[in-house]
Amino acid sequence: MKKILVIALLALATTGAFAQRVDYGLDLDYLADNRQYGASQEVFSPSAFFHAVNFSPRVGMTFSTTAGVTHSVMFGADFYKNLGTGFKTWDLMQEFLYYYRFDLRIGRRGTFTGIAGCYPKSLLGSDYPLVFFSEEPRFADRNFEGFAFKYFSRDFNANVALDYFSVPTADSRERYEVLSAGDWRVIPGLSLGWRFLHMHYGASKNIPNKVNTFMFYPYAKYEPRTSLQRLSATLGWVQTRQSDTAQEGVLYPGGVLANVTVGHWGLGLSNDFYTGRDLMPYYGTSYKGVKYGSDLYPGSPFYHTHIEGFSFYDRVEIFYEPKLGNWGSVRLSAVCHLGNPTGMFGVIRGWQETVSFRINIESFRSLKK
After folding, report:
1. What are phi and psi of 143, to 5 degrees?
2. Alpha helices per DSSP H over the chain
3. For the CA atoms of the chain, what is the radius of gyration?
4. Which of 28, 226, 227, 337 is most exposed by smallest CB count within 10 Å?
């Protein structure tokens, strides 16, 4: 006991030599997502009403040591509830949040950051197209378990992260993902960037096969100066490499992915257009009765086109998103999914109506005493 007290006193004496402050962060998200996919006989995804709320408070300490260097230790919890379902109090807690973060100032405008532990994905600050992550995993899986490094400046930012889902057991696989994102502002209005995802669907004692998918999306984005609140055009190529040791060969499906978004006074239109091959060829594959599905492909199932050769998929969204400031957002959307007509279904794949609300109070703010 005496040794513990001595160590604690030494720690307090040491940290007292540095500038320190109490920091906090909070994320609150609400999503109502009504999916009507009967037009495609629910081949891509079942019709459903997804209705949930997520609340993630966290608090900790930040210490400023040498000039331009800060260290943070944060703790918190992630609470999640599918609304309309019964629950027990402790069932609401999905996982504890606990992570260490350091920030190193580089030059006058750059910052290098390292994070390790279980931490919110929002700390990376990168968005991914729906081909990488669909609405439900974005909402329900809010945190990374692993590490991340990122660099941020006025004209260039990049990051890489590891998210470790599960260790292998006799009857369950090892699963992890590696992500990377980057954006470079070449000139005002024009930027180049990339998004990358590697999904590892590993082996176990009773499941010997391994599945690996790699998805890389380099793109160019144009955002001209205009009187409109939003106007952007993005064009790139999605390239994948996919292999399953239970099957012969390696697959390389890919295609063109583009987005155009225009909006003013909160009202807008966003169109995602893809043409190419089926990006999720193993989606319906199963091994010993266990379907790969969304465990292997967290992206929108509409990119599993169910068509051999080239085809197209078009997602058209009309939305209303009034500006609330940096602290939060609200969005109302109506979405139509379109694609190649086949013998099973026509051009229309289905409809969605969504309402989302988000509050974000970023970490690392001082609490006034």
Report:
1. -125, 155
2. 2-15, 135-140, 293-296
3. 23
4. 227
